[in-house]
Design brief:
Blueprint: H1 2-5, H2 10-15, H3 29-41, H4 47-55, H5 61-67, H6 76-96
Helix pairs in contact: 3-5
């Protein structure tokens, strides 16, 4: 319901300055943000357990579909790098929008 009511494309513009055109292909910041938000809303306190659900063909299907993940599934390190790249201030700003 959340993804149908809110356009999260604003995340891309807020994150644009944190990415370089010379860097290797990255996950869409919106996808990573949505997965973090789903984890928070569904009260998955442990990222490892959430990623286990995300990788499960059936249990993780809705998360992957709504976040736009159709290929490789992000790792725990991907989420850590995303937070580090954005910095605590920007990450919290996005989360509270």
């Amino acid at each position: 319901m959340i993804t149908s009511l809110i356009d999260f494309s604003f995340v891309r513009s807020l994150c644009a300055s944190c990415y370089s055109i010379k860097s290797p292909p990255a996950y869409d910041p919106v996808s990573l943000f949505l997965l973090e938000m789903f984890r928070y809303i569904d009260r998955h306190q442990n990222m490892d357990k959430f990623l286990e659900v995300l990788r499960d063909h059936d249990r993780g299907r809705a998360y992957r579909t709504y976040a736009g993940i159709y290929g490789d599934i992000p790792t725990k390190g991907t989420f850590s790098n995303f937070k580090d790249r954005l910095g605590g201030g920007l990450y919290n700003q996005i989360f509270h929008v």
